[in-house]
Amino acid sequence: MSSVIPRVSQLSHRVIRILGCNPSPMTLQGTNTYLIGTGKKRILLDTGDTGFPEYINLLQQELSEKSVALQEIVVSHWHHDHVGGIVDIFRDIKPGCKVLKLPPASEKKDDKPAENIDYTYLKDGDKLKTEGATLR
C-alpha cells in the first residue's frame, strides 16, 4: 500500500517541500522541490517541470503566506522535471534572482531551457548562504 504525501510539507523549521504537481512513473506524485531557509529570502532547490500551473500556484501561496521571496534558484541536475519550471517561475512569479547549476558535462543545446535567463555555474566547494541555512 502506497501512502499519499501532501503537496506541501514542512519537513523542518528551515525546509518546505513542494511537489511539482507533475505525477508520472518517474516522478511518482511529482518532482520534489524545496524552499530552504528561515528568513525573508529563501533558496528554491529545483523547479519542477514547465506547464504545471498548480505547482506555480502552490509556490506563490507559500511565498505569500510566509512573506518571503526567492533569493536564488538552485538546480540539482538538468532533467526537465527539475529545471523546466524556471520559465514559469520567471514569467509568473518574477523573482529577479540568480539561477545556479552545476556545469554541463558537455555543451548541448538543451542545457539552457530558456535563453532569456542567465545561469551561474556552481563549482565544487561553493557555499550558498541564506538566513537559517548554508548549502554546499
From TrEMBL:
Domain of life: Eukaryota
Gene3D superfamilies noted in UniProt: Ribonuclease Z/Hydroxyacylglutathione hydrolase-like
Metallo-beta-lactamase domain ranges (all copies): 28-91
Cited Pfam families: Lactamase_B
InterPro entries attached to this UniProt entry: Metallo-B-lactamas, RibonucZ/Hydroxyglut_hydro, Sec-metab_biosynth-thioest
Name this protein carries in UniProt: Endoribonuclease LACTB2-like
